[in-house]
């Protein structure tokens, strides 16, 4: 019988990548919660989302074989909660929260590795706040739970600090209220018991060549199946592209893999995918662990497909069904691939965005190129939901090529065709 797999946050892009897997392996995919129910909402109410999901599961007449998701919070917490309730394969909610809660995660990491920055927690509503942070400028501040770099700020001086704290206090409730719901479902050690979703974390600056390890844990065995380079723009805060495979030395990738294995086992995270972001400081030959995400990165799905011959949705599905993944390696049509972002700092009204004729020209010139435009004429970039603190993401293009030089050249030619223009 076909397996019935329920997807939290199903959208057209990911559905197009899931359907070939379903046809090949006999899976049927069902939308448990739509993308617009778990993304881009001004407010998330976990009780309502869980109620909708449970009602839809109860009304389904067939077998319920797996529940999966690839978005950030609240999806990352909804999926393990529902899996535990339905008796399905997956990690415990507590182990997921040890990844999601940035301060809790650092406390746990500090018990098994030194490859992390100095850090401290603070309540952004406290008085004399700066005196409570035992870090010299510059440093980063961010809520213990947010996503997509929202409300994350690099702080250089008192003025930066005061302005950023005001923005955090204005927007943190969107994350803190639903996050507290999930925190209250698990037991927490004394060291983090009082650090609720309203808190923030300050961290010393770490830097270097950034990458992401995509991996999974299956019955306690940690495997890493891909390393992706994360190339930032000159401001050191904004991603320009994700490129696969990584150009980091193999010995550095191995050091990161060992660190990932140590940390994920310590967190008792099991039977699920993850991705971990690292920096490699070449000058000091040191690796730094940036953060852990208890999910696949859907941003990497198409570039895995281009290089390895399959989207790593397959890893997510195999684990959700209780099976060990067997992900292919270098079976794709390209040796190199990247997801390039269209970004801007201009918040003017868009008077031109790439149209279908331009998009078709790119696809004819570079077959298998994927283009997604988030904006329309007449919009301002600030109308987009879920943007980071330093730029606006107008869309992206995923390109494959024989090597990095050809990849960058193909991207340059794409930009000559795909035009964004702003009114003055």
Total helices: the number is 13
CATH classification class of the largest domain: Alpha Beta
Order of helices and strands: EHEHHEHHHEEEHHEEEEHEEHHEEHEEHE
SS elements, strand count: 17
Distance between the termini: 59 Å
Instruction: Give helix % range.
Output: 25-40%
Shape: globular
The rounded Rg comes to 21 Å
> What is the residue-averaged pLDDT?
95
**Could you give a short account of the major beta sheet?**
8 strands, antiparallel
CATH architecture of the largest domain: 2-Layer Sandwich
Strand percent estimate: 25-35%
Number of self-contained structural domains: 3
- Determine the CATH topology of the largest domain: D-amino Acid Aminotransferase, Chain A, domain 1
Assigned CATH superfamily of the largest domain: ATP-grasp fold, B domain
Supply the key terms.
single chain, 424 residues, alpha+beta, Dna Ligase, domain 1, D-amino Acid Aminotransferase, Chain A, domain 1, 3 domains, 8-stranded antiparallel beta sheet, 4-stranded antiparallel beta sheet, 13 helices, 33% helix, 26% strand
Structure notes:
The chain has about 425 residues and is an alpha+beta fold. Helices cover about 35% and strands about 25% of the residues. It has helices spanning about 10-25, 35-40, 45-60, 75-85, 95-100, 100-110, 160-170, 175-185, 250-265, 300-310, 315-320, 355-365, 405-415; strands spanning about 5-10, 25-35, 65-70, 120, 140-145, 155, 200-205, 210-220, 220-230, 240-245, 270-280, 285-295, 335-345, 350, 370-375, 390-400, 420. Strand 9 (about 220-230) and strand 10 form a beta hairpin. The longest helix has 17 residues, at about 250-265.
């Amino acid at each position: 019988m076909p397996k019935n797999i329920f997807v939290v946050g199903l959208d057209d892009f990911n559905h197009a990548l899931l359907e070939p897997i379903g046809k090949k392996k006999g899976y049927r995919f069902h939308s448990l919660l739509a993308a617009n129910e778990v993304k881009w909402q001004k407010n998330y109410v976990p009780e309502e989302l869980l109620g909708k999901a449970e009602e839809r599961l109860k009304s389904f007449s067939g077998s319920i074989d797996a529940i999966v998701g690839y978005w950030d919070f609240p999806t990352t917490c909804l999926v393990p909660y529902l899996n535990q309730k339905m008796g399905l394969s997956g990690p415990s909610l507590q182990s997921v929260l040890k990844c999601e809660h940035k301060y809790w995660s650092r406390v746990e990491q500090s018990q098994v590795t030194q490859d992390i920055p100095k850090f401290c927690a603070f309540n952004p509503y406290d008085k004399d706040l700066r005196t409570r942070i035992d870090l010299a400028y510059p440093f980063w501040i961010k809520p213990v739970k947010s996503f997509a770099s929202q409300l994350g700020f690099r702080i250089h001086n008192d003025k930066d600090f005061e302005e950023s704290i005001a923005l955090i206090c204005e927007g943190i409730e969107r994350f803190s209220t639903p996050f507290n719901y999930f925190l209250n479902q698990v037991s927490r050690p004394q060291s983090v018991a009082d650090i609720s979703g309203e808190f923030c974390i300050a961290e010393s600056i770490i830097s270097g060549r950034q990458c992401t390890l995509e991996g999974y844990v299956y019955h306690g065995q940690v495997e890493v199946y891909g390393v992706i380079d994360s190339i930032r723009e000159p401001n050191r805060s904004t991603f320009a592209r994700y490129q696969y495979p990584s150009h980091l030395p193999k010995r550095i990738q191995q050091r990161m893999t060992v660190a990932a294995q140590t940390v994920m086992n310590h967190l008792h995270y099991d039977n699920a995918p993850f991705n971990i972001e690292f920096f490699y400081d070449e000058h000091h030959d040191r690796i730094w662990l940036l953060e852990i995400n208890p999910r696949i990165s859907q941003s990497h799905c198409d570039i895995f497909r281009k290089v390895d011959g399959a989207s790593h949705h397959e890893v997510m599905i195999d684990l959700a069904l209780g099976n060990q993944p067997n992900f292919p390696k270098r079976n794709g049509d390209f040796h190199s691939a990247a997801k390039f972002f269209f970004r801007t700092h201009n918040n003017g009204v868009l008077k031109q965005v790439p149209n279908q004729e331009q998009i078709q020209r790119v696809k004819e010139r570079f077959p298998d190129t994927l283009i997604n435009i988030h904006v329309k004429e007449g919009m301002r970039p600030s109308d987009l939901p879920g943007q980071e603190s330093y730029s606006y993401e107008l869309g992206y293009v995923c390109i494959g090529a024989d090597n990095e030089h050809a990849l960058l050249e193909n991207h340059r030619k794409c930009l000559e065709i795909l035009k964004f223009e702003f009114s003055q």
